[in-house]
Amino acid sequence: MKLGTSGYNGKDIKKTAIIHSNDPENPKFTLTISGHVEKFVDLNPKYVRLTGYSGTRISVPVTIVPTAKYPFKIIDVTSRDDTFIKYTLTERKPGEGNGYTLLIENLKTDKGRYMDLLTLTTDSRIQPRLTIRVYGNIMEPK
Amino acid sequence: MTKKVSGFSGLGDKDMKHICGWAILFVLIPFSVFGQGDTDPGAPSLNVPEPLFQFESVVSGQEVNHDYIVHNKGNAELKITSVKTG
Lengths: 142, 86
What we know:
The complex is a heterodimer of chains A (142) and B (86). Chain A contains no helices and 11 strands. Chain A is an all-beta fold and 142 residues long. Chain A has 2 domains: 1-38, no CATH class; 41-139, Sandwich (Immunoglobulin-like), CATH 2.60.40. Chain A is flat. Chain B is of the alpha+beta class. Chain B contains 1 helix and 5 strands; from the N terminus they run αβββββ. Chains A and B meet through strand 1, strand 2 and strand 3 of A and strand 2, strand 3 and strand 5 of B. Strand 1 of chain A pairs antiparallel with strand 3 of chain B, so a sheet runs across the interface.
């Protein structure tokens, strides 16, 4: 059995698989896999909603803090669509704690919704990529 | 001096008791062996010695792989029709 652990940052995981067979006494047999998934990174928020009125500044800062056990550096940030958002990555200052702040800003000027995906490339062999989903909802001013 | 003969020519009572004893043993052994299991002779029986696998903690993003060993302890062919994840 193969088990992906992305998205289980710091949580316990338990998955099952059921074998269906012609055994008359056990036509369904359950296999279980479980364990603890350690946190790799603190992403806050985990996804971004850029909601607001067109003509106003809409932005959300995301803090990215590596856990002490698995330190990493971010070496690149790319977006899938790159049409409606702008993003700026800065290292946090000593007083703010370690890690990074990624500021994501809306560029869409008219009414509408969009979705984008930011990919952060790290120098970690454990997680070479982190992703952040971005949902935009731009409304007309009242 | 005459030897008492019963049933089989040339065999005495003592010999017959031995034969009967062995015959009963041979008849009972198969029943006792098949009677011990819960499985009907002629039915498959799926057996997984370790159906629960608990892995040591891993870091998020790491893939966990585990092979479960499936035995057939029955007397007929075991057919696995599907495996569905929950």
